Fold this sequence. Notes:
The protein is of the alpha+beta class. It has helices at about 35-40, 45-55, 70-85, 90-130, and strands spanning about 10-20, 20-25, 30-35, 60, 70. The chain has a three-stranded antiparallel beta sheet. It has a two-stranded antiparallel sheet with strand order 1-2. A hairpin with a 2-residue loop joins strand 1 (about 10-20) and strand 2. The radius of gyration is 31 Å and the shape is elongated.
Amino acid sequence: MATPEVPYQVEELQYAEFGKATMAVKRRSKGVYMISAVAEMYEIHPQTLRLYEREGLLKPSRTEGNTRYYTDEDLERLEFILNLARDLGVNIAGIAIVLQMRERMEEMNRQMQSFVEYVRTEMLTRFQQNAPSTGAAIVPMRRSVVVPKAVVVSKGAKKA
């Protein structure tokens, strides 16, 4: 009895770069893939995917029947893992460290963006609350604009 490998129809063919080699990878947008389909797409053994899951590198979702389903985000993470393993020769422990550092950096980046947005809104709020009136400014603001007169110099004349 044949079971479908991928529950939805494949819509596009993408190319994933693994170092010097470029592989054609069948991908759908917002799809889910069974372990055998993912193993075939990336030319790896299903046991390798199970090992990556056991080591905490991948976390595919599961059905009620405990079948693994890999999302597009899982596949992007797998491509990164395979790039580290195949092209850079990083072992599983090293991959775990790199992934952990990458997640921490992304979290720090989110925190920094949040902090910058907080500072921006706080400064804008304080500036609007303390908007100086014309007489209370540290440096008085002039309302009139002084326009210098244009000096016309003829060819033979000297400029003073």
